[in-house]
């Protein structure tokens, strides 16, 4: 049984993330989607909220498990008996940082590899930051986030104004 971990901030999950989840879930027997802390970001949604939003969107993927961790990514990967980290790459601008993280993670644990999936061309422009900005100004979010979570994103973002 081959397992992989797809980590991220998911603040909130976007259609781009969901596209990577669907494709990675077709490659691996079990895909762990892990909501983690990115120390460079201040999240809008709590960790529990982000987990719940993702769970709602992946209900029909039987081999996807959603969890969270505030530890080191490689430790979480090890705890799941996995050896692969899945990351989505949207553009060359993502590459430098993602490559650096992949090398750092492999330095900590050489048995763990990072697999990059090229983002669907439909979603190369999309990020959680874009979603929050659009929601703030009342834009139609159907092109950006799974429909199951649109209302939650709008009320959270607009509640913060
Ligand atoms: O969606 P993001 O914000 O690009 O995801 C980045 C994330 C959360 C995967 C990354 O910050 C992370 O792995 N955080 C956990 C702590 C850790 O292991 N940091 C990397 C050490 S090189």
Protein topology:
Blueprint: E1 3-8, H1 15-27, E2 30-35, H2 47-57, E3 64-68, H3 73-79, E4 84-89, H4 92-108, E5 113-118, H5 128-136, H6 150-159
The structure holds 4'-phosphopantetheine (PNS).
Number of helices: 6
The shape is: globular
E-strand count: 5
Helix and strand run:
EHEHEHEHEHH
Are any ligands bound, and if so which? Answer: 4'-phosphopantetheine
Distance between the termini: 46 Å
Question: What is the CATH superfamily classification?
Answer: HUPs
Please name the CATH topology.
Rossmann fold
What share of residues is helical? 40-55%
Which structural class fits the helix and strand makeup? Answer: alpha/beta
How many domains would you count in the coordinates? 1
Fraction in beta strands: 15-25%
Averaging pLDDT over every residue, what do you get? 96
CATH class: Alpha Beta
Question: Numbering strands along the chain, what is their spatial order in the largest sheet?
Answer: 3-2-1-4-5
Low-confidence stretches: none
What is the second-level CATH architecture? 3-Layer(aba) Sandwich
- Which value, in Å, is the CA radius of gyration? 15 Å
**What's the main sheet like?**
5 strands, parallel
């Amino acid at each position: 049984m081959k397992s992989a971990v797809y980590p991220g901030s998911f603040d909130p999950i976007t259609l781009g993330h969901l596209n990577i989840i669907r494709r990675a879930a077709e490659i691996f027997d079990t895909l762990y989607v892990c909501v983690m802390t990115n120390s460079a970001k201040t999240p809008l949604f709590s960790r529990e909220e982000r987990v719940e939003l993702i769970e709602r969107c992946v209900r029909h993927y039987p081999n996807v498990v959603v969890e969270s961790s505030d530890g080191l990514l490689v430790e979480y990967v090890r705890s799941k008996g996995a050896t692969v980290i899945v990351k989505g790459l949207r553009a060359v601008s993502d590459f430098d940082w993602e490559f650096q993280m992949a090398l750092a993670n492999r330095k900590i644990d050489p048995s763990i590899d990072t697999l990059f999936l090229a983002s669907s061309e439909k979603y190369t422009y999309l990020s959680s930051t874009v979603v929050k900005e659009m929601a703030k100004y009342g834009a139609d979010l159907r092109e950006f986030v799974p429909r199951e979570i649109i209302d939650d994103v709008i009320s959270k973002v607009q509640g913060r104004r």
